[in-house]
Amino acid sequence: MALDRILIVDDTPIIRKSLEERLRGKRYAVSTAGSIAEAEKRLATSTHDLIFLDMELPDGDGRELIDRLSHSEPRPVVVMITANGSVETVVECMRMGAFDYVQKPFSMPQIDLVLKKAAEFQRAVKVTDFLNRDSISQREIIGQSPVIVQLRDLIHRVARTNATVMISGENGTGKELVANEIFLNSQRSGKPFIKVNCAAISETLIESEFFGHERGSFTGATDQRDGRFELADGGTILLDEVSEISLALQAKLLRVLQEREFERVGGNKTIKVDVRVLATTNRDLLKSVEKGEFRQDLYYRLNVFPLRVPPLRDRVGDVEVLATHFLEKFSREHGIKSSGFSDAGMKSLLAHNWPGNVRELQNVVERAAILAEEGNPIGPEIMGGIPVVQAAPTPTSIPSAVDTPADLPAATPIANSEGVVTLHELEKRAIFDALEKTNGNRTQAADLLGISIRTLRNKLAEYRGQASDKEEAA
């Protein structure tokens, strides 16, 4: 739950007792204090998520404690307990940072309502803080390929504005990372950053997630709830995979983008918001528009500033730096001492087509980091059998039994008709590379490959036989 520990500060024993019993019955951890001095002792030894605070205490005014709490971190939710309930007192306390108030004598249903409101508020704050911290820790867009340099430049240009941005790209390319970078470099970076995964929320609930709902608006709506747009007021909202929302909701989303206003589900009060919208999609939205699956007017509202995140196959020059970055990251996280990648391992990474993009590369590197034996560099044999794609295959000659080191060719594996190098050809490449590194010394080559000298001889004989067959066929 968003609220765990609650402190009750009131000088009336019966109020402390009744509140404590009610809260403990709801399984909260509760502590009590009858004065400001006693409350400060409690606060010095443990943190609290919520504080019920009487305004009139024997050793001072509760507003003094509110002022001190406003500078604490983490900051608790403060609910005032007041006897007179004057407008001036309430307004002053709210300005100082109090969340809500209850007036004596209060009922327990009033306390229950305050608890629910405070829990929703605290949960929203914690989620936003978590997303902001995650964005900051994951903010770096790694790479120096021309397409990434250009992307970073566009990000920094649009980040300073309030323009709506449509971020497109294949799955795993890092679209959310781009959104994070825009947010962090914007004038709204100190305000909420709310993310909505449109593909992960059912069609029946997504409108409520967007715009909130009023109590009783549908079965299960026992309380009023603020939507994501309302929580993002003043900040930024990310509509992740926006192409997945229904046509009916697209019309309501269009109104928010045009008018910056909406009503909660089941409500008639118009709520105005100041929100910057970022959206991502892995689809070609123009094709979706042509098929009638996505509104054309909404497309143009979202596509004010389009950004395309390139697939990894279009930025091969970044593979090595990304793989090294991921290996260092996972080595730290898993407490592994890494010896880096072997030449064959890196060549395999560079040759792969990466249909799963950066996310696939990250997963491959993490698995390899875990499987690697300490002191041994990572080779292709522990990379999950990733296939190697050869863009421009060239013929390979087969070393004979009397080849000298100088005669060994720079072996290049031959791709099949689908442009994919088979494991057989990859194995041949590894053997030729090992022979080249050892100047033709088969014993040393076998040691590098981790195979026996007999296996190496058999493989070379097999390759010579294949070459002879090709010559006879010719």
Question: What is shown here, in short?
Answer:
The protein is of the alpha/beta class. It has 18 helices and 18 strands.
Mean pLDDT: 83
Helical content stands at: 40-55%
Alpha plus pi helix count:
18
The fraction of residues assigned to DSSP E strands is: 5-15%
Major beta sheet summary:
5 strands, parallel
What is the number of E strands? 18
Radius of gyration: 32 Å
Overall number of structural domains? 4
Indicate the CATH topology of the largest domain: Rossmann fold
The CATH class label of the largest domain is Alpha Beta
Q: Output the strand order for the largest sheet.
A: 2-1-3-6-7
Which structural category fits the helices and strands?
A: alpha/beta
Q: What is the architecture of the largest domain at the second tier of CATH?
A: 3-Layer(aba) Sandwich
> Given the C-alpha coordinates, what overall shape results?
elongated
How would you characterize the overall build of this protein?
This protein is of the alpha/beta class and 474 residues long. The protein has 4 domains: 5-121, Response regulator (Rossmann fold), CATH 3.40.50; 138-310, P-loop containing nucleotide triphosphate hydrolases (Rossmann fold, 3-Layer(aba) Sandwich); 313-386, Helicase, Ruva Protein, domain 3 (Orthogonal Bundle), CATH 1.10.8.60; 405-473, Arc Repressor Mutant, subunit A. It has 18 helices and 18 strands. It has helices at residues 13-25, 36-45, 62-69, 87-96, 108-137, 146-159, 175-184, 203-211, 228-231, 247-259, 285-290, 296-302, 319-334, 343-351, 357-371, 423-437, 442-449, 453-473, and strands at 5-9, 29-33, 50-54, 56-57, 60-61, 77-82, 100-103, 165-168, 193-197, 212-213, 225-226, 236-240, 261-263, 270-272, 276-281, 305-308, 388-389, 420-421. The chain has a 5-stranded parallel β-sheet with strand order 2-1-3-6-7, with helices on both faces. A 5-stranded parallel β-sheet has the order 9-12-15-8-16. It has a two-stranded antiparallel sheet with strand order 4-5. The longest helix is centred in the first third of the chain and has 30 residues, at 108-137. The chain starts with a strand and ends with a helix.
